[in-house]
């Protein structure tokens, strides 16, 4: 199910609840998803369970791939406070902003990936079709050749052998499989993130995007009434930044011990940007944390757009 379908569902459900439509009737109405029938079946199942007296937020936990932890938690808070429609509106706004951010990052990465793949294909094509005609010339010259020329000749002859392609495809498959398994582990995600962060333009873009998602998630959860420690832990998971996720337990411990959030961020400049620590400090001093995180999210969103333009 694409993110925009969940966003539209949340906004429509919020509108219907605000207009005093019973929740079961609203869910049954929204279960008619012609474009996404699988999503409609999920909503229909949830509506049936809710009509039997079950709580909506509890039923969402049975579909964790569709409804994230943040989504489930904000719905539960809305149910407890009797303000479910407002919680769903905040979720809709958060999902829309998060989806736009994801799409911009994907679009920024798609062109360099296309160029890289095209360059590899054209290079192999040249080795297979163009360069072989020069090999015989070099051999007939019967003179010592530079090392680079000998390497190119070796690759050109190897590319025309079936065994090379078997070895090439097998190596690529093994690397991709091993890479996927490595990236499934927390240490693998953290290591790969630290490597990517050092890549010019790309690292800056991904770091700004992660900060924007982090701040926007914090704003949505704090505005719904969630406690700060739990909010920051869940926002770290939503940011996509493994460094934020790894530091989340330490952040939560610091907050429970009475340490300001900005102090913890300032003591970890390799994880949190200085600008984020300063903006959080301003929010703490003014006792306006949700608004300040919202402004920080907008700032990093704008910075990421500049990074995307530079990379493009």
Can you give a write-up of this model?
This protein is mainly alpha-helical. It is 81% helix and 0% strand. It is built from 16 helices and no strands. The chain has helices at residues 3-18, 23-30, 37-51, 56-60, 69-81, 84-130, 132-141, 147-159, 162-183, 186-197, 202-223, 228-239, 242-256, 261-266, 274-286, 289-311. α6 runs antiparallel to α11 (202-223) and α11 (202-223) packs antiparallel against α16. 29% of the residues are buried. The model has no long low-confidence stretch (mean pLDDT 87).
Topology as H/E string?
HHHHHHHHHHHHHHHH
- Provide the structure class: mainly alpha
Distance between the termini: 29 Å
Work out the helicity level.
over 70%
**Portion in strands:** under 5%
Number of strands: 0
Count of individual helical segments: 16
Low-confidence stretches: none
What's the pLDDT, averaged over the residues? 87
Compute the CA-based radius of gyration. Answer: 26 Å
How would you characterize the largest beta sheet?
none
What shape does the CA trace take? Answer: elongated
What is the compact description of this entry?
The protein has 312 residues and is mainly α. It is built from 16 helices and no strands.
Q: Descriptors for this entry?
A:
312 residues, mainly alpha, 16 helices, 0% strand
